[in-house]
Amino acid sequence: MADALHENSETLIQTRTLAILGLFFVGIAPSISVITGFAFKAGALAVIVFIVTKIWMFGLPAFWHIYIEKQKFSWSPVKKGGWSMAFILGIGMMLVVWLAYFFLGELMLQPDALKAILDPVGLTVPWKLAAAIVFWVFINSVLEEYVFRWFITSKIEQLVGGKWRSSLLSSAVFTLHHSIALVFFLEPLGAVIASLGVFIGGTVFSWLYLEYRSIWIVWVTHACADVAIFVVAWNIVIGF
Questions:
Q1: What's the pLDDT tens digit per position in 113-128?
Q2: 228 burial class (0-12, 13-18, 19+ CB within 10 angstroms)?
Q3: For 177-208, what is each residue's pLDDT tens digit?
């Protein structure tokens, strides 16, 4: 009996240790990319760092899951439904973003600062910005759900348990690199409001994942929010 309890205790400690290490090594990658691109405005170097950190964010969770934790690969299939909920929440987020832009745009945004950040990497050119938007909506948002919901939210769930506690803490990690980026092209009030919006959105994303256990359900909601944001960005940078 004592041996079994000791073995279970050691297993729990090992699981939590691996979860903490995985959280650290994966969680720092987005902030490194954002700081390089927004704080240092490193141009071509920022693009290289962006690509490297994306590979890092994609590869390390899979490596950690399969080779460190000895778990099986999965495509995160949709088994519990959730498509309707995903679309309803996504459309709600779109409306919130557009209403915030309509009523608070002048107080929140720094259009010249946004253009200054995007111009060195060519994203003030219409076709390049369009290509970037397609990438962010159909690839980057999937990658973020894979990283922040499947990996990071799951690791936090292992540490603290509970759907809402895990969702809130995961959202805090998700909000960090977004907030770093936001301060460079939004007014202080706008950065605070937008960061709060990201935190609420991240909490919703994490809750959706823990409720339905598929990144594809969450991606639908995330993609809707991204489309709304990029419509605003297109209007600022290119214009309609």
A1: 888 888 888 889 999 9
A2: buried
A3: 888 888 887 888 888 888 999 999 999 999 99
Residue 176: count other Cβ atoms within 10 Å of its Cβ.
Answer: 18
Provide the residue type at 167 as one letter. S
146 Cβ partners below 8 Å, 6+ apart? 58, 61, 76, 215
Check residue 78 and give left, alpha or beta (phi > 0: left; psi -120 to 50: alpha). Answer: beta
Q: What's the domain range around 221?
A: 2-237
* Of 129, 109, 110, residue with least CA distance to 119: 129
The span from the CA of 136 to the CA of 130, in Å, is 10
Cβ atoms of residues 199 and 175 within 8 Å:
yes
Domain count, the chain: 1
**Can you give the length of the chain in residues?**
240
The first and second tokens of residue 233, run together, are 């960005």
